[in-house]
Design brief:
This protein is α/β, with parallel strands linked by helices and about 240 residues long. The chain contains 9 helices and 7 strands; from the N terminus they run βαβαβαβαβααβαααβ. The protein has a 7-stranded parallel β-sheet, sandwiched between helices. The protein is globular. The N and C termini lie far apart (about 35 Å). About 45% of the residues are buried.
Amino acid sequence: MAAEFENKLIVVTGAAGGIGQECVSLFLEAGAELLLIDPNADALKQFQKSLNAGDRVKIHVSKIASPEACAKALDGRPGPIYGFVHLAGTFVADDLTPDNRTDVYDPVIASNLTNAYDMAIACIPRFDPDQLCRIVLTSSLAFRRGASDHTAYSAAKGGIAGLARSLSRRLAPHVLVNALAPGLIDTAMPKEFIAENHDRLLAGIPLGRFGHAREVATVIEFLCSDGASYMTGQMLNVDGGIVAG
């Protein structure tokens, strides 16, 4: 029996992060070919080396900060694309002062929302015409509830929801577009925030613990799989029950 993603090319941004690495491992186990994109050159190269997957894994170091950068990143691996998984982003607090507009808001929107839009556009002409292709975007619990100290981040992640719903209609029936909203996941990005607010945050999680990166990655794998072939335009919560419904 062939592996789920055998000979299928999946592009993963934010691939050197905690969730990204778990996604890549799962996709590799299921036979995928991969293009990994991340701005952290050392982490990305070290991760590629640890995988020992040869030509099945190509990497490209980029902040994907413009349409041109997104197109160049995809040039790192020719051939039709089956899946695009967007995990790239930053988690930055804001203080709602006038300087916040250029110091925090603009770069946070760019690195959490604009790059998703630009990458999706870059992928569209490359999607395999003979496959039911996939886009999976990453929103956040901050979109669902609003993170009081992370207003720009919350706005960006809300934009991801609208982007996924719009693209799901625009690209149907050839590309399925879904998103997920992770909650408090024990990875490097929210590590400081979790440490500073540990007891208060934990008290609000019905499952009584923080999530693990692999628990998010398995949902992403599902959304890319044949099991999700009748799902598009959806936002899935992966948050231990914080948001019900």
